[in-house]
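Quick illustration, no need to memorize.
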Amino acid sequence: MGEMNQPPPPPVGVPPPMGMGMGMQPMMNPPVGAGAMHQPHEQFHHLAYCVHSNPSWVQVAGLAFLHYLVMLGSTVMLASTIVPAMGGGPGDKARVIQSFLFMSGINTLLQTLVGTRLPTIMNASFAFVIPVLSIAKEVESQDLASNHERFRHTMRTIQGALIVSSILNMILGYSRVWGAYAKKFSPVIMTPVVCVVGLGLFQIGFPQVGKCVEIGLPMLILAIVVQQYVPHYFRHMHDRTSFLFERYSLLLCISIVWAFAAILTAAGAYNRVSLKTQQHCRTDKSFLMSSAPWIKIPYPFQWGTPIFTAGHSFGMMGAVLVSAFESTGAHFATARLAGATPPPAHVLTRSIGLQGIGMFLEGIFGAPAGSSVSVENIGLLGLTKVGSRRVIQISTGFMIFFSIFGKFGAFFASIPLPIFAAIYCILFGIVAAVGVSFGQFQNNNSIRNIYIIGLSLFLGISIPQYFSEYTASAGRGPAHTNAGWFNDIINTVFGSGPTVALIVASGLDNTLEVRGHEADRGLSWFTPFLRRRKGYSDPRNEEFYSYPIRVHGFIPSRFL
């Protein structure tokens, strides 16, 4: 115990760091993580063409045709989902695809001219599957003479519901309600929303590839190798060859795998497999070539006089609202990949109003679903590094041409769907990654921001997955009351990932610790793009979003 009273030992000197000696200065260590720091950039530096710059006409034509092929896959998928449930056959399916293509061409042209002016393709939306199938199920219970008559009756009912429900988007857009909502956005909101815009479509990605893995998987691998690795190999040999592989490799890959599928079909590889496998793998099982007319121009009320019912119209409004949410997130992704500034609030609100007009026209011309922004074509902008508006406008010519000359359109529509699904795995992933890029404009070290982004991202994927699994097991959605229109609205809204993510993120970001966190939320960078007032808005907005002609002398500015 006496040892405790002894004095402590003398302190031991710490040896000098290595490199310090006679007359030498101490070495300064770099800050932790200094080599991983990157400055935020408003635009991607590797884009070859932005929204208002244009490649040569030959390149425009090739890229426009590629955009047409990419959007065609989801169009055929949607038609293959809803037409058999409506009682339609191969001929009806061919005409539905023609109607979709025709209206996609018209609506895309309108949006690129007087809508957002961004290079976005408007395509038939999967958000309308639930109300369409609900109408088809109700019509099926009626005593009709044949399946074709049931199909026409269902189409007329859908037309009436779409015409009435489209008014919702017109009101939201042209009353500037959607613009007021858009002014509450921030990078904290856009990060999870744009991520879910891409990730929320995973069900038409690899799950569709797996339905014919011997075609889909080679397409996925070939597309990655030819588009990403081959150009780097040829860059040391011939720049022109490298450029062609980087820009147009998907056309080559589709041709090779499509020919491979045709060889397997001709060799009898699918003669003794199940009918479902044949439908996904064979190149001659869609019967579109034999049933499509040579020339058929979609015309108003081609299925007959629309049938208007209040319940179906209200039920369809859920899908119309979802298309507005999904398109809003998609527009922000498009602006990033097209080298434009984030779309201002007044541009988003006029786009939603015009989208309502487009759905009204779709109801008149007999398309059984409304339209929203095609996510796969947004990814294609990033893959080709060409965000030119002209490319998208020329692609509408291909849509309208192949919608009128049905045999030619049916030839490309007979490409096996797993080939398209393999491409979507890449394109949807690019869009999801664009959402991550919005994080550079906010404080990623803020626990508040991490909480909002994480919860919005998780619920945006988890809630729709719950609704999807419940529907698959029970044959109906979780909302099941005596009011069918209410069920359709709830099941559609919460079955959409971008809609859930945008509702959750905007609600939390505008109510949770709002004051004093403006800089953390990225508002100092983001707000000038959303505003329109002179002196408060970014002057570059006019460069990307102004009308092609001066219309302010004819239309009051509050409607523009």
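Strands lie at 122-124, 371-373.
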